[in-house]
Every structure is written in structure tokens, then in C-alpha cells.
Amino acid sequence: MAVTLALLVLVAWPAATAGTVTRDSLLNICMSAKHHKEKPGPEGQLYGQCVLWKDNACCTANTSQEAHEDQSYLYNFNWDHCGAMPQKCKRHFIQDTCLYECSPNLGPWIDQADNTWRKERIRDVPLCQEDCEQWWEDCQDAVTCKVNWHKGWNWTSGTNQCPQGAMCQKFKFVFPTAAALCEQIWSGSYRYTSHHRGSGRCIQMWFDPAQENPNVAVAQYYARGDAPPSPPLPVLLALLPPALLALL
Predict the structure, then answer these.
(1) CB crowding 161-175: b at 16 or more within 10 Å, else e
(2) Per-residue pLDDT at 12
(3) Are 154 and 77 within 8 A, CB to CB?
(4) 246: helix, coil or strand?
(5) What is the pLDDT of residues 196-248, one digit of tens each?
(6) Measured between alpha carbons, how far is residue 89 from residues 24, 55, 71, 96, 234 in Å?
(7) Residue 198 Ramachandran class (φ > 0 left, ψ -120 to 50 alpha, else beta)
(8) Considering 41, 96, 120, 161, which has the largest number of Cβ atoms within 10 A of its Cβ?
(9) Is residue 139 helix, strand or coil?
(10) DSSP assignment letter at 55
């Protein structure tokens, strides 16, 4: 019995540490997509709203510049497909682009993509309530013709145009709630949550660049399932009675 218990400790320890390694592989990584770097790292020249990620980014300075342009080379996407988008609304889409292109803290939500132009995408990223609510509040009177902006556009001109028969309407009619906007506009990339900024349970699109990136801790929480780190082998062995240690 004593020998069996000791052996169980030795067998369980590698399995536990392997689980930790697997979970940690979701941390500080860049997805395999169109413009992402292979690995995150410092980018001191990030532009405008993307500057939040300058200390550790998956985007280049050039990508961050293009994230602020209308119909940029990144995706040739036209925010103004139903007329000029108000700047107070557009800033949220710029921030959304910066988060997607630059953040190295989206690993727990990286999934396989069904596109020819990228291998991976994000799915169900838990956004903080304030980020979704403010996005909807500032965009409710902007105009669009589609719910899902990932697919279904007319690209014959080289940039996205409303498909035939689609009617331009204010966001508040297309997306009646903040949850509808965050969860539907990019086909489930984001998930609306009741968690607040600073809770450690939701990803923040916006944060103070003078402070540490709060999304690091959020990614750790979801990657590890809130599990404590596995104790090192010496700690486990110290828990065994001396009589059992003598049998090893």
C-alpha cells in the first residue's frame, strides 16, 4: 500500500505539470492570420489607438497605421458603406481592429478559421460590459445594411458594398442591444459579459497605457481554468511520510 501511494505521487506529478504547460501554451501568442507577426514582441512605433500594445504586440507599426485608415490595404473594408460613419463610432472599430491585430492575450479564444486568407480566428472573446455598451451607445445612430460583417458583401468593386436588396438602417435597429452588436457583427468573435473592467474576467478593448495590460491576467485566468499551478515534485515528496520516502 505504501509503495503504491508513493508511485501514484510520482505518476501524477508529470501529468499535472504537462497540463500546466499545455494551458500556458495559450498565453502570449499571436494567431496565424493575414497580418499577424509570428511571435509577439515590443513595437515602439505603434500608431494612434494601437499604442496600448507597444510593449508587447502581434502587429507591426505599419499594420497599426493601416488600422486607422478607411479602406486600408489590410482588408479593403469600407466602414462608410452606408454613408460616412461618425468618428465617435469609428473609433470603436479602430480599437476593435487594434485589439484583433495587436493583442497577444487572445490565445484562449483562438479557433480554426474557415477562410482562405487566414488559418485562425478568435471566437467568444469575453468583452467587458462597458466596452460593449459604449460601442453600442456611440454607434447606435450610425448606419449599416448587414448584421454579420464577416460575410455576404458585394466585393465586385474591390471593396465591400451592400448586397443587392439590403437596406441601410441605423445600428440601433440592426443591433437592438449592445450584446447583439458585440456578438453578431463579427460572427461570434466576441461575447457580451456582465463582467466589468478591472474584474480580471473580461477582455478590455481600452485600458490605460501607463498601467499594466489587464488582459494578461484575464488570458491566464481562462487558459488555466482558474486552477492553481501544479506544485513542484520536491513539494509533493515533502508531503510523504519518511517511511514512504525510504521506499523510493
Answers:
(1) bbeeebeeeebbebb
(2) 46
(3) no
(4) coil
(5) 999 999 999 999 988 899 999 999 999 988 544 445 545 444 555 555 445 55
(6) 36, 27, 16, 11, 55
(7) left
(8) 96
(9) helix
(10) T
Q: Are 104 and 30 in contact, with CB atoms under 8 Å apart?
A: yes
| Residue the block writes with cell 485589439 | 99
How many of the other CB atoms lie within 10 Å of CB of 131?
26
| Residue for grid cell 458585394 | 154
Rounded to whole angstroms, the Cα distance separating 96 from 77 reads 14
Cβ(224)–Cβ(157) under 8 Å? no
Length of the chain: 248
Distance of CA 70 to the CA centre of its chain: 23
User: 148 φ, ψ to 5°?
Assistant: -100, 110
Q: Is 240 helix (H, G, I), strand (E, B) or coil?
A: coil
Q: In this structure, what DSSP letter does residue 161 have?
A: B
Distance CA 120, CA 177 (A): 28
Q: What is the DSSP letter of 19?
A: H
Per-residue pLDDT, 71: 74
